[in-house]
Amino acid sequence: MQTTASREKQKTPFETVLVLQGGGSLGAYECGVYKALHQHGIKFDIVAGTSIGAINASVIVGSRSDEPAKTLEEFWLDLSEGVTSAGLSDEIRPYFASAYSALFGNPKMFFPKWFVPSADYFMPYFWQYIYDITPLKNTLNQYIDFQKIRSPDKPRLLITSTDVQNAKPSVFDSKYDNIEADHVLASAGYPFYGISWTQKSGKYLWDGTLLSNTPLREVINASPKRDKQVYVVDLFPKNQPEIPNNMFEVWHRARDIMHTDKSENNIHMSKVITRYLKLIREMHGILRSSTLDEKAKSKFTQLESEYHSLASERGGIIDQIIKIQRHEHAHFLLEDADFSIATIRELIDKGERDAKETLATCNIEQ
Fold first, then answer.
1. Which of 23, 41, 185, 245 could pair with 235 in a Cys bridge, judged by C-beta atoms 3.0 to 4.6 Å apart?
2. d(Cα 20, Cα 27) in Å, to the nearest integer?
3. Whole-angstrom Cα distance, residue 229 to residue 221?
4. Do residues 331 and 252 touch, judged by C-beta distance below 8 A?
5. In this structure, are residues 158 and 173 in contact, taking their beta carbons and an 8 Å threshold?
């Protein structure tokens, strides 16, 4: 039987985790970040994402080729469209491209309801969605081998969604679930953009962003025993010195605040729990070396079992967090709907540059 001392001395290797946010076309930035991390030789034990982050995470883990970074970039270039790039300036292109997506959709991702005859076609008040994301399912199957995701030698994949009926998170975990394209779609149905929900496993599921755009809490809950080194890609700027000038900029700033990384509290609570466990461990050591009467010994034996259970179940901490932050020079509300090829290429390049700069200033342990 393993002794208390040997259990206390054990130290499992930390897990390296990649957390990807939701953010529509801004997910191309995450593609660039992953390219840099891959070039740096960083291997991940867990890849977690929501919305477009879940899509990126699924491509990374289930890439049909042995070069996931290359596959992810090909995926994004395939999603992009060229009609809104030719001859347009950088200032005008985002407006035209987002309007084009809203009116005509994206053949690789979604199409508007008004392109398909239906019984309620002339009764938009009763529509439950505006955009159907069935095309995305076909694109995912083109780039992702879902059998690979289930392989034990692949990173563990976590994708998050929101239960429409009870407002609870619904997390799909490749360690336990046979993840399919519908699981990924379930994470990407953002109702404020009129995107349809997905029915899966008897549930109606919306975008995981509605509950948390940075699924670090879900990572901690899924793997609470091991310490972690976490890479977070933050698509929405936390700081903006300029005060918004009009309602569109007001909505843009409010959106950024709602979607920006809020994992500081998760990290703080992880450290608090760790301090509590260390304190309990020291008190446990004192009691073990003390002379106790029979009644106290009996009570200590009961508490010892509970202590080891707690230490085992919630013993992991966030050892290090590396955040790659996207910055912006202009504030455009529908920037996450700009799929023009010029913008997609620019986001990929910027993500790669920012990640390389961040890695150069961090002390990364592998």
1. 23
2. 8
3. 15
4. yes
5. yes
186-210 pLDDT, tens digit per residue, is: 999 999 999 999 999 889 999 999 9
Q: What is the pTM of this model?
A: 0.87
Residue holding tokens 């809020």? 262
Nearest one of 84, 172, 67, 81 to 135, comparing CA atoms? 81
| CB neighbour list of residue 259: distance below 8 Å, 6 or more residues apart | 21, 22, 23, 209, 213, 235, 236
> What long-range pairs does 164-168 form, CB within 8 A, spacing at least 24?
164/197, 164/203, 164/204, 164/205, 164/206, 165/203, 165/204, 167/211
Reading the block at residue 104, the tokens are: 């005509």
- The 10s digit of each residue's pLDDT in 131-182 is 999 999 999 999 999 999 999 899 999 999 999 999 999 999 999 999 999 9
DSSP code at position 196: P
CA end-to-end span of the chain? 33
